[in-house]
Amino acid sequence: MKVNLDEKLALFNAHWSPKLIAKLNDYEIKLVKIKGEFVWHTHEETDELFLVLEGNLTIQLRTGDITLGPREMYVVPRGVEHCPIAEGEVSAMLIEPTGVVNTGAAGGNLTAKTEQI
Amino acid sequence: MKVNLDEKLALFNAHWSPKLIAKLNDYEIKLVKIKGEFVWHTHEETDELFLVLEGNLTIQLRTGDITLGPREMYVVPRGVEHCPIAEGEVSAMLIEPTGVVNTGAAGGNLTAKTEQI
What we know:
Two copies of one chain form a homodimer. With about 120 residues, chain A is mainly β. The longest helix of chain A is centred in the first third of the chain and has 5 residues, at about 5-10. Chain A has one domain (about 5-115): Jelly Rolls (Sandwich), CATH 2.60.120. In chain A, strands 2, 3, 4, 5, 6, 7, 8 and 9 form an eight-stranded mixed beta sheet that branches. Chain A has one helix spanning about 5-10; strands spanning about 5, 20-25, 25-35, 50-55, 55-60, 65-70, 70-75, 80-95, 115. The two termini of chain A are about 15 Å apart. In chain A, strand 2 (about 20-25) and strand 3 (about 25-35) form a beta hairpin. The interface of A and B includes residues 2, 3 and 78 of A.
């Protein structure tokens, strides 16, 4: 079945809580809404792809910031500490292997379980 | 470095010749321009993700057609024979493991080597 990104984005409002919309082999395609600052964290085992759909997202890195607008993407390399931040609301697609925890090894109260929509 | 999809799309015109724009672990993120009908083929070893950026793409399956507009995606399951077709020009993102050949096991003169842009 095809997946319409805008129909899926209309199904949720919570920030920092990725929603599963499709699987590709052992990878998950997720949508996430973002506002404010996340937590600095690292995924030691995998790269992580961010593709912005709406809004402007800054991915803070220890070496400088990457700012993405709509139709811009960035792959955070495995092992690189990062912290997303957005002044306004952002909608983005995330792609990473199944089972990756959003807060990586940092944990904390922004840790979310990925729900399928 | 971030990747702007529209800047990358402006760099090529050839149809049916996927261009590598990023890597995610052992997966490739590619852009492709499509017009006309491809060749029926199967990827026995992997799913294949199509995300349409511009235009309307039909993915013909032996069980029926899937038609995608902008911001719509479909994952062709591994082993499922398919044939993309588009009346007008389509720009799409493809995601699949590194080394997948565009024509699968079918081969033929539409087989393209993936070039990085």
